[in-house]
Fold this sequence. Notes:
By secondary structure, this protein is α+β, with helices and mostly antiparallel strands. The strands form 15 sheets. A 4-stranded antiparallel beta sheet has the order 1-28-27-26, with no helix packed on it. α3 (711-721) packs across α6 and α11 (827-840) packs antiparallel against α12 (842-855).
Amino acid sequence: MRNLRNIGQSIFALPPSSATPITASCWDVARDELVVAYGPTADEARIELVRLSRDGSSPSYLNARTVASWDAPSVKENGDADAILSLHHSSDTLTTCVIMAGGDIVTVREDDDDHSAEAHVEIVGTLSPSIVAARWSPDEELLVVATGDAKVVFMSRSFDVIIETVLTEDDLKMSKHVSVGWGKKETQFQGKGAKAKALRDPTIPEKVDEGRPSPYDDGRCTISWRGDGAYVAVNLLQEGVRRVIRVYNRDGELDSVTEPVDGLEGSLSWRPSGNLMAGIQRLSDRVDVVFFERNGLRHGQFTLRVPENAPGAANSLALEWNSDSTVLAVIFKDRVQLWTTGNYHWYLKQEILCGQSPGEQGPSQLPLFSWHAEKPLLFAASTAEKVLLNEYVSTVARGPATPPHDHGAVAVIDGQTIKFTPFRTANVPPPYAFSELDLSSPAIDVAFSQDGSSMAVLHQVGVSFFALEAKGPRLLPPRLIETALFGLEEFQLYEESLLQIAFSGPTEVQVLQMAGGLGLITYDFAAQENKQWTRTLNSETIAAISSFEEGSVDGVVAQDRFGKLTRIFGEGSISLDAKFPTFLPWSSFVTHNEQLLAFGLSRNGHLYANSRQLVKNCTSFAVTNSHLIFTTSNHLVKFVHLASVDELDVPADDPENDERCRSIERGGRLVTAMPTKMSIVLQMPRGNLETIFPRAMVLAGIRQLVEQKDYGSAFATCRTQRVDMNILYDHRPEQFLANVDLFLDQIRDAANIDLFLSTLKDEDVSQTMYRDTKSTTIATQSDDKPSTKPGKINTICDAVLQKLRTKKNANLQNIITANVCKNPPALDDGLLVVAELMQEDESLAERAVEHICFLADVNTLYDHALGLYNLDLTLLVAQQSQRDPREYLPFIQELHKMSVLRRQFTIDDKLGKREKALDHLKAMGDFEETSAYAVKHKLYQHALKIYRLEPEHLRTLTDLYAAYLRSTSQFREAGLAYESLGNFADATDCYLKAGASCWRECLYVAQQQQSSPSNPLSTDQFQEIASTLAEALREAKEYAAAATIHAEYLDNIESAIACLCKGYLFADALRLVTRHNLPQLLENGVDVGLTEAYSSSTEFLADCKAQLKAQVPRIAELRKKAKEDPLGFYEGENPFGNRFGGSGADIPDDVSIAASSRMSTNASLFTRYTGKGGSVGTVGSNVSRATSKNRKREEKKRARGRKGTVYEEEYLVNSVRRLVERVEATKGEVERLVFGLVRRGMPERARAIEELMESVVEGCRVAVGEVWGEQNVGGQDEGREGEEQGGDGYGYRATGGDGVLQDSLVATRAKQTPPVMGGFGRLALLGGR
C-alpha cells in the first residue's frame, strides 16, 4: 500500500566543452559523495576521476572536484579504446579501485588531509588476456574477477590470488534438478470433479527449456554477491551450450548451477536478503524478470512493462537490488523502473527517464546505475553526459482522516494504473483494489484534497483530476474530471523532472518540478478562464510539499532541506512558527486550538512535534482530528491526544493497562485511520492488511456518541467491541438520566435493553477501566474521586422503570428485568407485577413468570412469592421450578386451611423471618406462645420493643432477657436489667462479676440491698464486697478509686494513703491525712510512700539511661556496616575480600535486598538467616522455605532480635521507641514526686531525681535525632525497591522464612514517624527555669 515519493533530486551535467563521456560511477558512503570516471575514448585515451557532491546552498545541483587523471592506452589489437568494467571506492582506506576491460587493475589513493593534492595512482596488476566482469564483496575483503578465457579468479583485498577456477561444460552436470510442482496448478486440489479429468505428473513440465540463447544476448558476464558475502553468482554464456548462472561459496567452490532457461540474458542481481537471484528472460511476446534460488531452481517471475513509445529501450536490460531488498531497479536504455512486491504481486512504483530520448540520434548505452549502500532509496543514474541523483521514501498516499471525510481512501501506484481503495467502503486486500484507474503515462505521485472530495494524480505528461463522490457513508469509484497536460515535447520529458504534487485548495494543485531549477507550478481545475500551468515559486532548497490535514487552512506547506516550514498560497508565502530540527521525509500538519502542530518522522525513527522529540523508535504515523497515532519498533501502536506541543503525553509501553497502547503483529505499519469507524488499517511485512479497532479510538468514539446523545450507535459499538456498557451512563450521568426516554427509543429492542440493565454495576468505569487519558482531563480529575457510585444501579433502574410503566404491556419484559437487576434485586416488586398480570391476563402472567424465573434463582423466587402471602403466585412460580409437586402442594393446601394470622406466622417462620413471625404471634394475643418463641429464637430485644407499652408482659420479658445475659457472661448488661427490675441481689452479683470497671454500680446496688426488706445484705457481706473491689482496682492500677473505697466504705485511712502514694498522688494523700487529723501518718504513711516512689523512679531512670547508651550506638554501627558493605552485612562473608583495597569499593553497585525473580538456583540474600546455605529456593532439593513451620521459626527469630542477626536493627529501633514513649508517659509522675518531696522537706532527693530525669529526657531527644533523624540513609532506595517488588502484589513476593526477612527489611527501610519527646520542666524552687 506504499508508494515511492521523491524527496530529493540532484543533477550534474557535463559542460559542453567536455569531450570525454562519463563511463563509470560508484558511491563514497562515508562522505555521501559520488565518484565518477570520464573516459577513455578512442579520441582521448585518458581517464579522469571526479567527485560529485551536493552544494549546501543549492542541493539540486552537484559540484565536481577532480581527484586524479591518468593515461589509459588501448591494449586491444584493433586499437579500440579500453573500457572501465568496475569502479569501487573503499571509504576506510580512501582508495578507489578501477578495473579495466584490458586486464589492468588500478588503485587511486587520496590524501585525507589535503583534498587539493593529486591522488596516488598505481597499476597493481594485470590479468590476461582480458577481464569481462568484476565485483567486490559487500565486506570489501574479496574481489571476484571473470577473465576473457573463461576463468573466475578470487582475489584478496591486497590483490593476492586466492583461488582460480575454470568455467567448463562439466559444471553444468550439477543442474539435474527435479521439480515436484510446488505452486503449480496441477498440484492444487480442484474438487472431486478433477478426478474425471486427465491428470498428469506435475514433476514433468509441459515444456522443457533447453537453454536456447536470446537473440538480444550481448554476451556479457555479470557477477553478483549475496548480501552477507557468503556466496557469489556468475552469469556467463557458455559457448555452444547455454547461458548459466554458477554459484560459488566464499572459498571459490562451486555450489550450484541454474537449470536451463530459454531466452536467459546476461543481467543478474542477487537480492541482499539472500533468498532470490533476479535475471532477465526474453520470450517471443514479452520480457520477464525471473528468479532463481541458490540451488539453481526457478522461483517465480513477473513480466516487465516495456514502454509503448520506446519498444527498443528493452533491447538491453540490467538489474540492481537496493540494500534492504525492498526495491528492484530495472535499467532500460532510456529509463529506470523501480519495482516493489507485496502479497506476491509486483508493483511498478516509479519510472525515471534518464537516458537518451528515442528521437535523438547517436549511440545509446545503458545508464550507469548504483544504489547507496546505507540509504536504501538513494541511487545515482548516469548517462554519458549527465548524472542524476534521486532519493525516495516509502509513503502511503492516504485521504484525510478527519471526520466526516475519513473514508480511509488509499491510492497505490502501479505503473500507469492507480489502485484506489476506500477502506471505510470496502476492505479490499492487495493486490486487488476497489477501483483501478488507468492513466496515459506512468504515475509519479498522488494527492488528496483536504475535504476528501477529489484526488489528483501526477504522471509524466500531466495531472489527472478525479472527483470522489460519496453516497451516504460509502464512496463511489473515482470519476475522471479533467487531465491537465504539461505540453512538453518528448525530449523535455528527459530533461525536466516532476517530483511531487499537493493540494493548495479544493481544486488547486501545486507541483514540484525540476526544470532549470526547482520550482512550483500551479493549476486550478475550477478556473473558467486562463486554465494553464503557472510557475509560482522558484526555490532550490525545497525538498517536500504537503497539504494541511484540515480544510481550514489554504496553501501547501513546503519543507526545505534544513527543516524550515513555509506556507505557500497563491502568489505569496509565509514562514511558519513551527520548525523541524532537520529535514524530515514524512510529515503531517494539523491545527489544534488555533495552533499549528507539525509532526515529522526521520529516517532513523525519531518522531517530532515541531522541534520537540517525542519518541526514538517510530516506524510509521498518522494524524486524526484528535489523536497522533504511531507504530513503534517494539510492535506497539500508540495514541497521543492532540494538545499543545509541550502537553503532548506519550504513553508508556504498557498495553495491558493503558488504552493508548496496543500490541500489534511484528513489523506492522500504519496505512490509514478512520475515526468514524473507530479503526485503523495496518499492513504487515508480507503485504497483508489487518483492520483493528484500538481501544483508544473506540472509547473516544463512544464518548463522542454519548455526548451527541446517539445512544443507539454507542450501544451498538459497545456490544460489537465488547466495551462495558456502564460507560453509557458513567460518561455523562446527568445527561443520561435526563434522556432515559431517548435512550429507550434508540435502543428499542427489549433484548438489548435487558442486556444493558443486566450489565450495570456500581463501579464508575469512567474512573477505573475507561478513565479518560487526556492530559487536560486527568489534570482536572481529583485523585480521591470515588471509583464506585453506591446506588447507581438502583438509580438507573428506577429511572428506566418510571419511563416503562407508561406502556406496561409493551415493556413487560424490561420492567421485570429492571426490578430483578437492582442491588439487592427487587424480587418482590417483580413478583407483584406478575401478580397484577394474573388478575388481568393469564397468558402475559405466564410469560412474565417464565422471564423472571430465567433471570433469578427459582427457589429464591419461590421463597419471595411465599413471603408475599400470595398462594396462587407461589403455586405459579413453583410450577416453573424443578420441585416435586409432592413437596409443595401439601404445604400450600395446609396453608389454605389456616387463619390469616396463623398462615402468615407459619410462612414467616418457615422463611426464617423470626421478627415478623413474632409480630404475628403478638397479633394473635397468645403471650405464652410469644414469650416461648422469643426465648427459643433469642428475640428478646424485638419482644421488648413490641411489648414496651404493656408493663406486666414487659417485666416478664426483661427478667427472661436478664437471665439470658447472665448465662452468656454479659454481666454488666445483666446487672442493669436486674437493677431495673429492683432485683438488687442478682444485680450486685452481676456487677461484681463484671469486674473493677463497675465498682460504683456494684456499691450502689449493694447499699440498696442493705435497705431491702427481703434478703437484706449484712455489714460483713458489704465489707467483703468493698474489699474485693478495692483489691481488684489496686491490681488494675486504679489507685485513686481503690483509695476512695478504703477511705469512704472501709474507713481504712492508712490503706487509702498507701494506694495514693502508690499512684504518685501525694497531694491527695496529704489532704486525706489532715482531713482525718491523723498526723502520725505523715511519717508512717506519706514519707514511706515518697521514699519507695523515689527509689523505684531512680532505678527506672537509671535503667533507661543505660539502655540508651547501649542501644543507640549499636544502631549507628549496624547502619554503617549495612551502608559500607551491604553484601557482607546481608549475606555474610564478603566474596571479594580485600582484592581492591577498599572497605566498600569492591562491592558491586547494583546490590538489591529484594529478589528479582520467582525462582533462582543461586543463594539469595536471605540464605544466611533462614536455613542451610547449600541449596536454596524452591528449586533446592533439601530445603523448602515456603512452609508455615519455617515462617513461624523465623518470626520467633525476628521477635527476639538476637545480636548479630539481620533482625537486630529492627529490634533495637523498636526498643528505643518503646523506651522514649515510656519516659514521656513517666514525666507526670516524676513531677508529682518532686513536688511531694519538696513539700515533705526532702529537697536534695527532689533535686537528684530532677537532674536524673532531665538527663534521661535529653538522652531520649538525642536518640530520636540519631535513630529517626537520618533514617533510610543508604537504604531508602533498597527499601523502596523491596516495596515495589514485594509489597504491591505485582512483583516477586518471598514466602516462608524469606518472606519474614523481606518484611523485616521493608519495615526497617520504610519511612517511620519518630516518637514525640517533650521537655521536662524543673521546679523553680529548686533552681529550675
